[in-house]
Design goal:
Blueprint lengths: L1 E3 L8 E7 L8 E4 L2 E4 L2 E2 L2 E2 L13 E6 L9 E2 L18 H16 L8 H18 L1 H28 L4 H7 L4 H8 L7 H4 L21 E3 L6
Antiparallel strand pairs: 1-2, 1-9, 2-7, 3-4, 5-6, 7-8
Helix pairs in contact: 2-3, 4-5
Length: about 230
């Protein structure tokens, strides 16, 4: 099971349900009076040994503790073969596909949660610009103009991406401290994602949210399965 570090309330914990053959129900196990569906993680079924399936799943489906499930089954036989033109991070297996489905959902659902270190970085940049304004005001004004233009571009890109992830206009407006109607009027003419661009939201590879040093601004950690 997976959890984002930007989700301290643990409102969106993900997992991959395993399915055998054409059965539309995942194998289950019981803990006390509660019945749990078995998940598949790192090459193993999770849960107690009693009634453990003897073979790995044929299909997976991503799910989240908030009630969300992925729109499609993932074929466990899927695997992108190594290729010199494809980064290692894109050489995925079936389990990686299910995780990418959940990750796109979880990032959208927790999109207002700041990544670790983001607030400190913004504070340092603001402090530096404030100092510059006191000693080199014209330079500070020029830099402020550039930052404003960049922020407008970032805002448009973020709104477009949020809509591609089906984030409601109400949530987008709240993040910008404005109303649904105002943000819709401002950004309604943004072009929709093309099929190629939507690939980052589909399980062909993980979403490409990362810093210039190659590390994403969040981490995904494993959490314990019920009954373990």
């Amino acid at each position: 099971m997976w959890q984002l570090d930007t989700d301290p309330r643990a409102a969106h914990i993900g997992a991959a349900l395993g399915y055998l053959g054409d059965d539309d129900r995942a194998p289950t196990y019981r803990v006390g009076r509660a019945l749990y569906e078995r998940t598949w993680h790192n090459g193993e079924w999770e849960g107690p040994d009693e009634d453990m399936p003897e073979s790995p799943p044929d299909f997976l489906r991503a799910l989240c503790t908030c009630g969300w499930t992925s729109p499609a089954l993932v074929d466990m036989s899927f695997e992108l073969p190594p290729h010199p033109d494809r980064p290692a991070a894109y050489q995925l297996t079936g389990q990686d596909q299910a995780r990418a489905y959940w990750l796109a959902h979880a990032l959208a659902a927790t999109s207002r949660a700041l990544p670790v270190g983001a607030a400190d970085a913004l504070g340092q940049a603001t402090k530096w610009l404030r100092t510059l304004a006191g000693c080199q005001p014209l330079a500070a004004l020029a830099l402020t103009r550039e930052l404003r233009a960049a922020a407008d571009g970032f805002e448009a890109g973020a709104v477009r991406h949020a809509r591609a992830l089906d984030v409601p206009w109400e949530d987008i407006g709240a993040a910008l401290d404005t109303t649904r109607q105002q943000v819709w009027r401002k950004h309604r003419s943004l072009p929709p994602f093309t099929d190629e661009e939507r690939d980052i939201l589909r399980p062909t590879r993980p979403p490409v949210y990362q810093h210039e040093d190659g590390h994403p601004p969040y981490t995904v950690t494993d959490v314990a399965q019920p009954g373990e």
